[in-house]
Each structure stands twice: as structure tokens, then as C-alpha cells.
Design brief:
By secondary structure, the chain is an alpha/beta fold. The chain has helices at 31-42, 47-53, 55-63, 109-121, 140-149, 166-172, 200-212, 231-241, 265-278, 335-344, 364-367, 372-379, 389-407; strands spanning 7-12, 15-20, 26-28, 78-82, 126-130, 154-159, 178-183, 216-223, 244-245, 248-249, 305-308, 313-315, 328-329. Strands 4, 5, 6, 7, 8, 9, 10, 11, 12 and 13 form a ten-stranded mixed sheet that branches. Strands 1-2-3 form a three-stranded antiparallel sheet.
């Protein structure tokens, strides 16, 4: 047995580890396990010998496909589908707002259904339905039905929580795996930095009605410089509502009018400590998620993930929906051609070992370089560190120190 070329070794604050970049599997190693893995990088080792040295590790490495060669192209697994550009609110920092907001008609149902079929056939297993405001589209249940019947495993709808009706929720119930409600404050007294007007009680009522319809409810605050210390309060709110919790990190250029809301390095360090206390991972815009470590060399934009705008235009991810990253139009051409174009534009080569400021970092195979959009916003380049690097560095520093103490 010998490790495949997609296996990497790294050190987490003194704990040797190996990771499979194909599936994200990570294992911390004992001294004996580290010696065995070093040999597996360099030479063929008989399975019987590996099992004799460390039977548990050997079996785990086999089960986790550490000896398989990597796929030529990583599979597409995630997609955003924006079903409308209409919205009844105007939230500061909305990633999808552009000149078409409330100025264009919704795409025909048939076009959306064909796009969903293409995504399903292309391998997408996690689909996020976004907008605009999704509940302004009357055929939303039909779109979700097609997604589930096409075999997409998880379908989540994002909403601002102000337009849901009991009738629409009942129609979505057989098809929606979850509905995520955006929050801008953990109580009615919190200032609404993003929305401008606090609608806390309305949003809590929306969560309850989603649950009454039999659908899982998420709450999704946007974390920024003014509320980076409030993560525990949002977690408590989710518990009180009986909901799960996602979060997004406010991301925009430093020249943007929202720049005063961008978190400082001190706020990012505080957020990292809060996430660690909650058992949550900082690199996912959809966190908190259950405690785990995941090996990666990139965020997957343009390769593992795509974003489809309301007019069918395709982009590498929902945060890179900009003209220079336009990959094609799913209403007009097959997904396969669009994916090829993403590779031709270099998204398959956006790996953390190539990023200035990342290639020598000991945590690079855990954060994967973070978010390419935030790198662009902070430094003007996709090949620079995530502007929120301090968040991930602090998190993994403290996590590694904790694990080292625990297993010393």
C-alpha cells in the first residue's frame, strides 16, 4: 500500500496529521502512526505490516481511501440557484443585489426547471435556493419538487422572513429540507445594522410557522464588526426557537460604504474563540457546523461549487457573481460546457499552495486558503490570503493547543 497523490501531511500545533484532499478526511497521528504514514508516502508497505504496526489507523486509512488516486476533476456537489431578483427589502451588503434588482422579470418556470435538471445531472447534491426574496416567486414549490425528484439530496431555501405565508409553507413542506431565515439581531432591542429596521418578532414568528409546517428552520445572522461578540447569544436564540443556526460573514471591499462594519483583527480573534467554545468551524459561511476537521486546498469555487443567477448566468460561487467571472448561461448551454470554461479560467488551479501568504502556513490544509471572494475584496486578487485569515489562524492555533493538551 502507498498513499495516493492527493494525500498531504501537516502539523497542527505539534500534532502530526494526514489528510485526504479528495474527501476531506483527517487523522491526527501517534508517533508510531506518523512513522508509518511517512513510509506510506515514500514506499509500498504491505497491508499486513501496516496492520501490525497500527491496526486501527491502517483500517481507517483504507476506509478513507488514502490509497486511491485522485479524481481528474473534483465533482460538482454544491450550487446556489437564484430564482428571482425581486426583493421587498434593501439590505446593506446584499451579495446578489445589482442593477437588475426589481428591474427584471422572473425567468420562466420551464427555464428554471431545465437548470435544476442540469444541476442534478451534473452531480449537485446540495442546492441552496436564493434570491432576491425567494417567496416572491409563486412557483417556488414546483421548483423544489423538481429538485428533489431529480435526486438532489439537500435543498435549502433562504428567505428574509417577511413574505412567507402558511399556504406557501404547506406547499413547500414535502420538498424543502430546511428554510433559512436571515436575522439582524438576537433580540428586539438590537440595532439592525444590515436591514435598517428591526423585525425580530416577525422573524421569530416566521420560524415558528416554518416549524409548524413540518420544515426544519435555521436562523442565519450576518456576523460583522458590530456583533462578532454575539455568537453565543445567537446560539442561545436558536436553542430557544428550537431551530438550527447558520451564519454568514459580512464580505465586501474595504472601500465599500459598509467598511466600518468589517470586523477588525481583534474582533476576528474574539469570534474564533467564540466559535471554538461553541464547537464550530470558522471556514464555512454556513457554520456553525458540528466539530470536525476537514482537509482542503481550496474553497471549491468554480469546481465543486457554482452559482446560477436569476437570469441563468453562472458564476464560480455566490460571492463572485461579477462580470469578470461570468462562466456562461445555464438557460442557453449545457452545464458541462460551463464547467470546462471554469477550468479554462483557472479555477481548478486555485490552490492554497499557490497563494502568497498561505503556502508556508501550517494550517493551510485545514482552512484551504479560506474564501476567494474575501481575498479579492481585501487584496484585489484571487491568489491572496482570505481577508479574514486572522479568524482561521486563531481558531486552529487554539484548537491545536487544546488537542495537544488533551492528548499529551
Amino acid at each position: 500500500m502507498r498513499f495516493g497523490s492527493n494525500v498531504v501531511a501537516f502539523d497542527l500545533c505539534g500534532i502530526p496529521a494526514v489528510g485526504n484532499l479528495d474527501n476531506g478526511a483527517v487523522a491526527g497521528l501517534t508517533p508510531e502512526g506518523a512513522q508509518l504514514c511517512q513510509r506510506l508516502f515514500e514506499e509500498d508497505v504491505a497491508e499486513e505490516e501496516a496492520r501490525r504496526i497500527d491496526p486501527t489507523l491502517a483500517q481507517w486509512l483504507i476506509d478513507s481511501e488514502f490509497f486511491a488516486e485522485p479524481r481528474e476533476t473534483a465533482p460538482l456537489t454544491l450550487a446556489y440557484l437564484h430564482v428571482t431578483q425581486r426583493c421587498n427589502l434593501s439590505c446593506a451588503g446584499c451579495y446578489s443585489e445589482d442593477d437588475a434588482r426589481n428591474n427584471c422579470e422572473d425567468a420562466p418556470t420551464d427555464a428554471m426547471l431545465r437548470a435544476i435538471d442540469e444541476l442534478a445531472e451534473g452531480g449537485v447534491n446540495v442546492l441552496t435556493i436564493s434570491g432576491g426574496e425567494t417567496f416572491l416567486r409563486p412557483d417556488l414549490p414546483q421548483l423544489l419538487q423538481r429538485a428533489k425528484e431529480a435526486g438532489i439530496g439537500t435543498v435549502t431555501v433562504i428567505t428574509n422572513g417577511t413574505c412567507t405565508s402558511d399556504e406557501a409553507l404547506a406547499a413547500l413542506a414535502p420538498w424543502a429540507d430546511a428554510i433559512a431565515v436571515s436575522f439582524d439581531g438576537w433580540s428586539a432591542q438590537c440595532p439592525a445594522h444590515i436591514r435598517g429596521e428591526q423585525r425580530f418578532h416577525l422573524l421569530c414568528d416566521t420560524v415558528h410557522r416554518i416549524q409548524a409546517a413540518g420544515i426544519s428552520a435555521h436562523i442565519t445572522p450576518t456576523i460583522h464588526g458590530k456583533n462578532a461578540g454575539d455568537m453565543a447569544r445567537y446560539v442561545q436564540l436558536a436553542r430557544e426557537l428550537g431551530a438550527t443556526m447558520n451564519y454568514s460573514l459580512l464580505s465586501c471591499e474595504s472601500s465599500d460604504a459598509l467598511a466600518p462594519l468589517l470586523p477588525s483583527d481583534e474582533a476576528l480573534r474574539s469570534l474564533a474563540q467564540s466559535l471554538l467554545a461553541q464547537g464550530s468551524m470558522p471556514k464555512s459561511s454556513g457554520g456553525p457546523v458540528p466539530f470536525s476537521l476537514f482537509a482542503a486546498t481550496s474553497c471549491g469555487a468554480g469546481v465543486k461549487e457554482l452559482s446560477v443567477a436569476a437570469d441563468g448566468a453562472v458564476y464560480p460561487c455566490h460571492m463572485l457573481m461579477r462580470p469578470q467571472f461570468h462562466l456562461g448561461n445555464l438557460f442557453e448551454e449545457p452545464l458541462e460546457a460551463i464547467r470546462r470554461r471554469a477550468l479554462e479560467m483557472g479555477f481548478g488551479q486555485l490552490t492554497v499552495d499557490e497563494f502568497d501568504g498561505c503556502r508556508d502556513c501550517g494550517h493551510r490544509y485545514l482552512c484551504g486558503g479560506g474564501c476567494r471572494a474575501r481575498a479579492l475584496f481585501a487584496h484585489g486578487s484571487l491568489q491572496q490570503p482570505d481577508g479574514y485569515c486572522q479568524l482561521m489562524r486563531t481558531y486552529y492555533d487554539q484548537l491545536g493547543a487544546s488537542l495537544k493538551q488533551q492528548f499529551a
